[in-house]
Structure formats: C-alpha cells, structure tokens
Amino acid sequence: MIKVNQLLKTVPTADGDLTILRGIDLSIAAGASAAIVGASGSGKSTLLGLLAGMDVASGGEVWLDGVCISSLDEDERARLRAEKVGFVFQSFQLLPALTARENVMLPLELAGVSDARQIAERFLAEVGLRDRLDHYPTTLSGGEQQRVAIARAFAREPAVLFADEPTGNLDTRTGERIVDLLFELNARVSTTLVLVTHDERLAGRCDQRFSMTAGELSGS
Amino acid sequence: MRQALTWKLLAREWRSGELGILLMALVLAVSVVVGVSSFVTRLQSALLSESARFLAADMVVVSRAPVPTSWVTAAEAMTLRSTEVVGFPSMAVADIDHMALVSIKAVSMGYPLRGELQWSEEPYGAVRSGGAIPGQGEVWLAPRLFALLDVNLGDEIIVGEQPLVITGAVRGEPDATTAVFGFGPRLLMNTADIPATGVIQPGSRVEYRLLLGGDADSVAEFSEWVTPSLGQGQRLDSVEGAQPSIGETLDRAQGFLLLAGSLAVVLAAAAITLASRRFGERHTQYVAILKSLGAQSREISRLYGRSLFWIGMMGTVAGCILGWALQETFIRVLGAILPVEPGAAGSKPVLIGAVTAAVCLIFFAWPPLRRLGEASPLRVLRADLSVADAQRKRDFFVGSLAIVGLMWWYSGSAVVTGAVIAGLCVVMGLGFIAARILLSGGRSVGGFAGSIWRVALAGLQRRGRANALQMVIFAMAIMLMLLLSVVRTSLIGQWQAQLPSNAPNHFLLNLAPEERPKLEDFFSNNDIRAETLYPMTRGRVISVNDAQLPKWEEVMEDGSPRQREANFTWSESLPTGNELLQGEWWSADTQGAWVSIEEEFARDIGAEVGDRLTLLIGADPLEVTVQSVRSVDWQSMRPNFFMVFPRKVLEAFPGMYMTSFRLLPEQKSLLNQLVRVLPTVTVIELDIVIREMRAVVDQVARALELVLGVILMAGGLVLISGVRSSLDGRLRESALLRAVGARKGLVLGALWIEFLVLGGLAGLLAGVGAEVAAWSLQTQVFSMSWTPTPVMWVLGPVLGALIVGGLGVWSCRRVVNVPPIVILREF
Ligand SMILES: Nc1ncnc2c1ncn2[C@@H]1O[C@H](COP(=O)(O)OP(=O)(O)OP(=O)(O)O)[C@@H](O)[C@H]1O
Ligand SMILES: [Mg+2]
Predict the structure, then answer these.
(1) B86-120: pLDDT as tens digits
(2) Which H or E element spans position A85?
(3) Which residue of A has its CA nearest to B284?
(4) Which residues of B448-481 are buried (b: 16+ CB within 10 A; e: fewer)?
(5) What percent of chain B clears pLDDT 90, i.e. is strictly above it?
(6) Lowest-pLDDT range, A185-199, B236-250, B533-547?
(7) B382 contacts chain A (CB < 8 A)
C-alpha cells in the first residue's frame, strides 16, 4: 500500500538549508496499521505529510496504492487525497467559520456524496459530539476539536488514514474510544492506518512500529 | 466542485462575515469613487455654465445682418432658449445743449440667458439684479450719462427719431466684456423700439447677437447645424472662447476637481487592496484545509473566482447606488450654496467606479488566492509562502499600472496623473528605505531601551513586511489628504490675493489736465486717498511698416490684422505686473521713437518687434518702432495699457489722465457728485466686478472645501481599514503577552509606540510626497508659483502619529479589556 524509497526532505531557512528527513525507506502493507514514534522535532509530522501527498519531497519516491506520488503534480495529488486519504492534523485544522457538522461535511461535499449531512452526524455521534453539531470550533475544547477532526478524517472511509497524534489531547477513556474506532475502521473497510504517537500502548496495538531519530527511521 | 457546493460554501463564508468585510470595503470604495466623481462632474458642468455668464448665454450667433428667423425656429426646435440683442453706436439727445455719443444695446425678453443684469433706480443707487429689462418706450442709462446729459429719472431722451423715458441706471451686464458696441457709455433699450428710432440704415455699424441657452447636447447640435450656413460677417461665440477675467479661476477649480476625483480613485484602490489582502490572509487556512481534503486548485480557483465575481457585482451595484445617493445628498443639502445649477453627471463616474473595483479585485485580491490554490497544503499550513511571494511584485506592478491608467482615463490629464504618481513613488521609495532601516536598526535600539520599547520594536520588526506595506498605504492616504489641502489653500489664497479688499475699486478715465485740481479738491474734501495719475492718450494704429491696415468694419474674417484704437500711456519702467516677452525695455531718459505693445494687441494689428507703426493721435500722425512685446496680467485690478511709450514720445501730445481710487459701499453716492463736478470723466465701477468675482470665487472655494471634506473622509476610511487589516496578528500577540503576564500598561504602551512610529513615519513620508506632488501640480497644472509648505512637514508626522496611533490602539482596546484567553481562542 505504502512504499517509500530514500525519501529526503530539506527546507531552506535563514541559516541555510535544513535537512529534516535523511533517506527514509519504509513499506506498509494494505490494511495494516503502523505507528511512528520518536522524539519531538525528529521529523514525524514531516514524514506523514509527505506520505499523504500533502507536500513535495526533495528526493526519493513515495508510492501510495500503486501510484508514485512524487511524479504527480499538485492537482493529481489533490485528487488522490480526495479519493483515498484521510488526515488528522496535530493541530486539528478545523475551519473556524464552519460549525462542527459543516467541518465534517466538507470532505463529503467535496467528493459529491449526497447524504453528507447524515454521515457527518453519524460520525460526530460516534466520537461523542452528538450535542455539539452546531458549535463553532472556537467554542469547543481542544479534545473536542480533535474529535471533530477525527470525525472529518473518518467520514469518507478513506483507503489510508494518517493521524498525527490523534490521542494527544484526549483523556484516557476518550482516547481509548477513538483508538477503538480507528481499529474498527481498519478492520471493517480494511483502511490502512498510519499513526504518529507518543502513546506506547497505542503503538503496541499496531502491526508495524517505526521509530524516528533525527530524520532517520528504524523499525519494521 | 459542483455548482451547488460552491454556493453552499459561499453562503457559509457570507455567514461567517468574512465576505462581508470585503464587500463593505468594496461598497465604500466604489461609492466614494462614484460619489466624488459624479459630484465633481456635476460641479464641473456647473462651473462651465458659470463661465457662460460672461457670454450671457451658452452660445451666441454674432452677425452684421439680422439673424435669419429660420435659425431662431431651428434653435427652438432643438429645445434651445433664445433672445436677441442688437448693438450699435448712436447719439442720445436730451436737449439742444446736451447730447452724447452712446453705445446702444437693445435687448429683448429673456435677456440675459446666463448671468444677471444689474441695475439701479438711481444712478449710483443700490444695485439690484435679475428679472428685469427696460420695457418698450423705456431706457436705462449708464450712471455717468445722467450727468453728461443733465437728465434725471423720468425724463425723456431722444434716440434717432424716438423719445424714450429714463426708468433706471444700468450698472453691470454679464456680457460687458464680450459684447462691446463702440466706446460711448451704455444706453440699454428694448429691441421693440428699434424700428421707431429709424437709426438702423443700410451700412450702419450694427451687431446682431442671437443668444442661445440650453443643455450641452442641444448647443452642440445647433452649432453643428448652423456652422455650414454661416456667411460673411457671421460667427459663433461659445463659452470656451469667452475669456472672462474669472476664466482662470474656473480653470484651476476644474483642475482641482479632476485632481480630487483622481485621488478618490487611488484611495478607493488602496482601500480595496487592503481589504483584499486581509481577505486573502484570512483564507490561507481555509484554502489549505480544502486542499488537504482533496480540493483541486481549479476548484478552489472557481470558488474564489466566483466569490470575487459576485462580491464585485454586488459591491459595484451597491456602491454605485450609495455613491449616487451620496452625491445627490450633497447636491440637495448644498444646493443653496452651490455656484449654479449642477449639470448631469453622465455614466462615466459609474463606469470608473466599476472598473476600479474590477481592477482592484483582479489584480490585488485574486492573485494571492489563486496562488494559495497552487501551493501544497502543508506549505500553506506552515505559512511558508516564499514561492507565492515571488510573484507578488508582478501583480502589484500590473495592478498599479492599471490604477495609473484609470487615473489618467478619469482626469484626462497626463500632468495631473504624473504629479500624483510622482508623489506616490517618492512615498513608496522612501517608505521601503525607511522600513529597511526600521527593520535592521530596531534591534540595537531595543537593546538598551526599556521593555515597552523592546516589545514595540520587536513587534515592528516581526511584522516587518506587513508593516512596510501598511506604512506606505497610510502614507499614501495621508499624502493625498495633505496634497489636496495644500492645493486648495494655495488656490484660494491666490484668488483672494487677486481680489484685495483694500485696493482701489474704481477707475477714473478721461481726466483733462486742467481738471486735475478739481479732482484733487474733490478727493481731499471727501477724504478719499488719491492714487497715482497715469497719463493717458487715445489713438489709433493705422499702418504697420507703411502697409495700411483695414478698418474694423472692412474686415470680414476673424483674426486678420486690422486697425485698433487704444489708450496709451508713457512709462519709464516696465509697468508692474507686466512681463517682457520679446525685445528690451528702454532706459528712463531715452529719446527713441519706440513703443511697447501688448501681445494680443500685437496679434490684432499684425506687428512684431522691429516693425514700424503709424498712429493717429487726434489728427496728428506718429511713427514709432516696436521695441518690445509684453504680456499683461488682466486679472490684476490695476490700470493696464495696450501701448506704452517712452516719456519723451508722448509728452508732446495733448493727453488725458487716468487714476484709481477706493470707495467704501456707503460712499457710493459720492459718484453722483463726482460726475457732476467732472462731467467728461468716465468712472469704471470695478467694485461691482470685484463683488461678482468674489461671489464666484467664494462659491467655487466652498465647492472645493466640500470636495476636500469628502476626500478627507475617504482617506480616513482607508486609514481605518489599514489599521483593521493588521489587527489579527496584533490582537493575538498582545493576548499572548497578556497571557504570559504582561501588564495592561506594557501591552497598551507597546501598541501605542508601534502605531505612533508607523503613523509618524507614514506622515513624514506623506509630507515629502505631498510636497513633490504639490510642486509639480502647482507649476504644471495650476500655473502658479510654488512655495514649500513647511507646516506640512510637521503636520504630516504629528497628524499621522495621532490618527494612526489613536485608531490603532482604539481598535486593539479589546486586548486589554477582554481576558486574553477569549482572544486566543479565536485564533
Ligand atoms: N518548513 C519548515 N521550515 C523550517 N523548519 C521546518 C519546516 N518544517 C519542519 N521544520 C523543522 O523540521 C523539524 C521536524 O519537524 P516535524 O514537525 O516533522 O517534527 P515532529 O517530529 O512532528 O515533532 P513533534 O513531535 O513535536 O510534533 C523541526 O525541527 C521543525 O522545526
Ligand atoms: Mg509533529
């Protein structure tokens, strides 16, 4: 499902180029779940963004579901994201101008799903936000915003779901419910799961475990 | 993206208020452009008809023979009003001992079509105006004719074979400078009496004038229709051709109005640009998230293209309506004090408004959004916009070019546009240098300054780019406001200087040398200060280089050389207010048989420097060589002469004198005594002209004040939206500062310093830019002399700092009044 060869990422900064990823190789099977762990600043979010086709690598290749996304242009990658990818950002990235329900409806609407409203409501109910449908993100707590973001990523039942610390802001019980939900989806529609997490228990439930150190990846 | 979804997203955007902000800015900008420019256009057409008063009409058919009645019918068919004036010299006889050569003007119902006829019941009595002309069987006389003919109100005088009753004194005619029928004092009568007088015979020197009045289109239509059939001795006089002394005032006022309109365009563009940028910045995240969810750039482009299109449409329509209402309100409210009836605005202002909005949206709002659509979502989320930034300069450049084009189109004047652009370029150039210095030098200052300063300077530096742009826009707005104020002040100042309130306001001509003691007695008895007496001789130029000039009556076409009669004087030095155009001035004791002539006079007789002129003074010939050509400031209220000779040349001829003196309004009746003591002198009541001109100048000045006020309001709006556009970042940072424990005083103090520095710098730049623009405008457009305006250099920074500082801190006041967490949650 996901295959990465010699992935490089450098960014220009005020004090010259900064290399964030130094030749990453990894491969994750379809329907499998994988955890990426590592110290803060080691490059996990950067890698996840590249895997999801949200950014362009400086070198190397990323294959997603048989497509080499390194050779796609931005619009083709967008189409790929719309069709196959769900993403939970570390910092949620909800649209402040939209209500919780509208935020979840957005990817469904973009894909032209007709009963977007019902689906959105169902997923919001699953993450425990049935009563907060019409609330705006600024009036939600950090954990609640995270749950809206997760509902949004789930709603399209994507082929691959990337989640950047999905439980980072949640209490243990809610965190567990979310994790259950993730694996249920993984099992039901054989969604491939790629998670960045500091939670060892969560990492332990995954089929594969990678650990990131200063831009280099180890693990299987 | 499906259509329905686009609408849905648009509706959500609308609900969130983001579109509303842009729409508001657009509506405001468009309504300012439309409002100001249609107000200005209407004022302009009003001012044009103001100059029509010097023709007493919008157009005049001038003819040596009666104007065909078919022309009158045609004019009426074209919805023009018309009235006929007939002018000729003749004798007026009171009795066998009292007769005078007069210049007769016969008028009919409706005269004048523009301007006002001024008259009084007593010779120098209170002036009344409007609504009346002499009826059939009546005449009005120039005041001095009463003394000359020794007649009173109610007496009869005979013109030709017809006795007419004196019922008033004519004091001022709107077309006095354009309709001159000989040199005698004026006698005004009714055209209905002309046949009975029997004075008009074949070969008489008569001028028939058909005055026409109506809207510009009809006037143009008639002009086109009649021009092919104009025969010998017939011509059309139009407003443009009339050269009233007030003409230059009106020209300058028009220049000012055009300038104001152009500034409105620039200000509107700045306001829309600011709002667009804010819109773009606040939508960065929106676009990024849409993209991360798989929206393609084409879809995003379509979403924003459509949003901007609809906002543009709504903004333009609403702006046009509001702008129209704005100017209509102006006209309604100010109707009473407006110079004359305002004309129509036409569709140009609306077009200008719409194009301004379109240009701003296409070049300033659209490109950042389009680029967002092309960037990768993570880039956008990390706000790492270096790729997009590279293109910004080009958009900015193209957009600015478009605005320049708009200004040019609007003003129709490359010079006005150029002057404003020059000022703006200076502002921008200096602005970016200042920003550089601010950005690099700030940190070292911050090092030893107190912590408020450190916070403020850090803020200035962190938002360096945004601040530089903001400063430049503040500076532009302040500059435009300063510029317009300066131009207005100097225009009005100059107009007032032209009409000094304590200068002589009466001319006295034709004073015989032996009558000088009588005049001096009269002046000292009545406490009137005597001014210089100028020697004055009357004569006629009959040939140039021995080639005989044709007489006035013999020349049919306009513009060909002809004999001219004029008043001369002698002078040892170049008269004040005159300027030598060619040749040289003579030394005081010269013996040369020379003359200096006025430029238009030179053209009339067809003479140049070095030509030999033959003159007739009385019956005596005089030969002189043209030594120089002068220009004369006809707007100065001083005696001016067409021909000036060296003292020796003219001393030999019997001459008269002229002088000027000042009378207060309550002394006017002294004129009656004066003309009885000295019946042969001519008194020119300049005070009536001055009053007329002052009225015009006052009204024009008031109109300019109004326009200035509107522009100041528009500038204020730009300042407000400029401050608002930077609010998000500042609010969040201030909230963060508060969250980490900064006192209110520190946060507010730092904000004050930041905005004061921005505003002060902007004001300083504005002062410099306004000076540059004022210099080029005053020298190139308004043909005035330029003097620096040091007060602007002080006022600019002070006002800039206070206004921007006040507005800025006021807009950010929430940050200290609301718990920081409330603000932080919003981001
Ligand atoms: N566009 C960029 N410009 C400059 N530096 C960047 C950029 N993107 C990432 N970095 C740097 O690269 C490093 C890795 O960032 P990344 O967000 O991938 O870390 P992370 O492993 O997800 O950390 P955390 O666990 O704290 O989320 C960081 O030091 C970050 O500052
Ligand atoms: Mg991270």
Answers:
(1) 988 888 888 888 888 888 999 999 888 888 888 88
(2) strand A85-88
(3) A95
(4) eeeebbbbbbbbbbebeeebbbbbbbbbbbbbbb
(5) 8
(6) B236-250
(7) no
Q: CB distance from B5 to chain A under 8 Å?
A: yes
Distance CA(B58)–CA(B113), nearest Å, equals: 8
Give the right CATH number for A2-219 from 3.40.50.300, 3.30.9.10, 3.40.47.10, 3.40.630.10: 3.40.50.300
Which residues from B are below 8 Å from A75, CB to CB?
296-298
Please tell me the distance from the alpha carbon of residue A78 to that of residue B290, in angstroms, as a whole number.
Answer: 10
Q: What residues flank ligand 1, with Cβ below 6 Å? A: A 11, 13, 18, 20, 38, 40-46, 90; B 382, 384
Residues on chain A bordering chain B, Cβ-to-Cβ distance under 8 angstroms: 11-12, 49, 54-56, 74-75, 77-83, 85, 87, 89, 93-98, 102, 106-107, 109-112, 138-139, 152
Q: Which of A12, A56, A89 sits opposite B376 (nearest CB)?
A: A56
Domain ranges of chain A: 2-219
Beta bridge partners of A10: A19
Total beta-carbon pairs less than 8 A apart between chain A and chain B: 82
Residue B728 sits at the chain A interface (C-beta within 8 Å):
no
User: Quick one: which ligand is closest to A20's CA?
Assistant: 1
Average pLDDT over residues B556-576: 75
Indicate the burial class of B4 (C-beta count within 10 angstroms; 0-12, 13-18, 19 or more): exposed
Residue B713, burial from CB neighbour count under 10 angstroms (0-12, 13-18, 19+): middle
Mean pLDDT score across all residues of chain B: 79
Provide CB contacts within 8 A for B309, sequence distance 6+: none
Give tens-digit pLDDT for B349-407. 888 888 888 887 888 777 777 777 777 777 656 655 444 454 567 777 887 888 888 88
Q: Are strands B234-238 and B162-172 parallel, antiparallel or unpaired?
A: unpaired
Q: Identify the weakest region by mean pLDDT among A99-103, B285-289, B582-586.
A: B285-289
Cα B638 to Cα B601: distance, rounded to the nearest angstrom = 18
Residue B194 Cα, ligand 2 centroid: separation in angstroms? 104
DSSP state of B529: -
Q: Which of B248, B246, B262 is nearest to B413 (CA)?
A: B262
